[in-house]
Amino acid sequence: MIDLYAEIIINSDAIEIDRPFTYKVKQDQEEIIQIGHRVKVPFGRGNRLVEGFVLGLKCEGIENIKGIKSIMDIQDQDPILTRDDLKLIDFLRDTYLCKYIDAIRTIIPVGLMSGLTNKKKIVLHFNKELDCGYDKKENYVKLISYIKENDGELTKSDLTKSNLFTVYTINKAIKEGFLKACEKIVYRYNTRIYDEDVKNNLNEEQLGAFNQILNSQSKGFVLKGVTGSGKTEVYMNLVSKVLMEGKSAIMLVPEIALTPQMIERFKGRFGKNVALFHSKLSPGERYDEWFRIKKGEASLVVGARSAIFLPLNNLGLIIVDEEHENTYKSEHNPKYSTKEVAKFLSNLKGCKYILGSATPSIETYFEAQNGELELIEIKNRVRNRPLPVMEIVDMREELKCGNLSILSRKLYHSIDETLKKREQIIIFLNRRGFSTFVSCRSCGYVFKCPECDISMTYHKNGYLVCHFCGRSQKEEKICPKCGSKYVKFFGAGTEKAQVEIKKYFPSARILRMDVDTTRAKDSHEKIYNSFKNGEADILIGTQMVSKGLDFKNVTLVGILAADISLNIPDYRSRERTYQIITQVAGRAGRGDKNGKVVVQTYTPNNVSLKYAMENNYDDLYKEEIKIRSIMKYPPFSTIFLIGAQSKNEDTLKEFMRTLSGQLSKLLVDEKELELLGPNPCIITKIKDNYRWQIIIKGFLELELKKNIKDILYQLTKNVYNEIRVSMDINPNNMS
Ligand code: ADP
Ligand code: ZN
Ligand code: ZN
């Protein structure tokens, strides 16, 4: 008999044990155990029982056989991880430098390891016919027919709540054998039935896109269609096709675009076959959806980014809608890019993947230009609806005329007019990111780092800092361009906007949709429904109002401060501005009435704005790709960010200097790579933890990345063990 051994990853965050450990498989386990099984094993000197995952099985090549411990227990009947999952784990480790366990936890349902299981309840079924002579017959007849009417099963509490039967009668009926009690799994996912979603016949452009994707030999596609061009309808038709072939599909949308409307459409079209997956699900709901998918009871997933990891069988299609959205990048370990994972899975499973957007990201469009992705365009809105009319307002002129309010005269009058016509308005204020850039209200000048072409950030100590290269300079009170003293940094959020607008339009009914008003579970849906039903005239909001909303009666969109996104300290700010303005503007004029958009800005000549007004993506792209190439930003490099945190600033600085020294040595022959920093992060301190960063710019080979990871592990393991480090490839923001 040959002995069998298992390679096991221990469920622990400790960096030191981020490697497989060998365990002996007991004889009675040999028949059962498979790669991917979750097991219990004794670990460490105390032989504490811990959970682990079997990543490999082998018979030979075992060292130190004497000291080897045995697997205690196999946790589940079927393996949790598949062979493909193991490849995915390797991909995540190599690409994002995460630990084994981080990759595993990303793939399996949260809650599994904290002991979550199915939720069960006891239901009563009809068991045997009444015999005629029975004297309490009438009661039982009522009871049994009541249960039959209610899907043939009810819990005891359902029955007593009906106030028709007493506990005594129910218990007696069980005892006499008329009813039978059984255990039943309660599903914690959304089982609501939705109205059927009426299918639109695809128009010519949509049909063209649909056929091109179906018939092409390519694996990856960019579907570039203007807002309201009916991309979702194309997706749904493709999904139908895939499901009919007996395959499954993943449809990803950014969390904020997973609106009640989107859910209604998919649930209404595909019914029970759809699983929903997003961050507002409870661990129980996630657990149930995960196993429902694993069992093949749902073959379409509509969800936010983490849904890419769901265990669909026989995957036939991956759709990433609004692919330009930055929420497709995870901010937790592994800090994966959903699009990269989609591409990997498409290769692994041999299925197609589609990146859809009205405003593709520069990197994606670059791939399309290179031929790595096939470009498909839809240039017109459905039913040939016109795109909204875009108007720009120069807020410097407003200031000159003594208007200091957040509403320009044009936007004020447009709101007034729209209210009179009883049409609806969306007001957008991009409050996210850091409104700490400094600009001149008189001429629009913004302080930027001359080295990096990135807005400098205002610090309370009176300095302006570039968080990319670390350059800093003293704040200036007077504009270097025009000499005005209206040099200010930006503030004001949606709440303040609501108060101000209410002041001007006291009888208008106003709703606000932002992080603060949508915290409770159904609040998002309530706001959405009430606006849809015409119970409000104006909807004010952040990014949440910028996508996924399809209200026919919205004819005016107001963008309060287009400059905010232009000046986030990031090389993507121009691109983001174009995207945001186009997306928000796309909410207007989706019904039969034409739409209008008013964009307020201090920098009306900015090219991103100009191109957004003209719906001119091509020129935006041409200009942007040139800048990226000159400045060596992605796609012409990768930005590798190493972050570190500690409560003790001195130790942190010392650590960063040591690290930087070691990295310089490592990279000494890598002429193409730039090492920037160490610098304090934009947010210098969070929860009493100081934050510093180092950036490596350029393309890094896998070996080099692994060496950097080793240096970090060694340093934090041996000397600086209270410092927390993180690595991020092409981070979303460098804050
Ligand atoms: P996008 O995702 O490109 O913004 P949608 O798929 O949401 O666009 O479509 C916008 C609106 O047009 C939706 O209300 C949708 O029901 C409708 N629609 C889509 N395709 C058609 C079509 N072929 N004919 C008529 N209406 C359509
Ligand atoms: Zn100025
Ligand atoms: Zn700089």
TrEMBL record:
EC number from the UniProt entry: 5.6.2.4
UniProt keywords, alphabetically: ATP-binding, DNA replication, DNA-binding, Helicase, Hydrolase, Isomerase, Metal-binding, Nucleotide-binding, Primosome, Zinc
Annotated ranges, domain Helicase C-terminal: 474-628
One of the protein's GO biological processes: DNA replication, synthesis of primer
Catalytic activity: ATP + H2O = ADP + phosphate + H(+); Couples ATP hydrolysis with the unwinding of duplex DNA by translocating in the 3'-5' direction
Domain Helicase ATP-binding: 212-378
Cofactor: Zn(2+)
Keyword Isomerase: yes
Gene Ontology CC entries for this record: primosome complex
Gene3D superfamilies hit by this protein: P-loop containing nucleotide triphosphate hydrolases, PriA, 3(prime) DNA-binding domain
A Pfam family: PriA_C
Residues spanning the membrane: none
Molecular functions (GO terms): 3'-5' DNA helicase activity; ATP binding; ATP hydrolysis activity; DNA binding; zinc ion binding
Keyword presence, Isomerase: yes
Binding site for Zn(2+) 2: 449, 452, 466, 469
Binding site for Zn(2+) 1: 440, 443, 479, 482
Cofactor remark: Binds 2 zinc ions per subunit.
Record's function text: Initiates the restart of stalled replication forks, which reloads the replicative helicase on sites other than the origin of replication. Recognizes and binds to abandoned replication forks and remodels them to uncover a helicase loading site. Promotes assembly of the primosome at these replication forks.
Similarity-based family: Belongs to the helicase family. PriA subfamily.
Quaternary state and interactors: Component of the replication restart primosome.
Protein name: Replication restart protein PriA
Protein's gene: priA
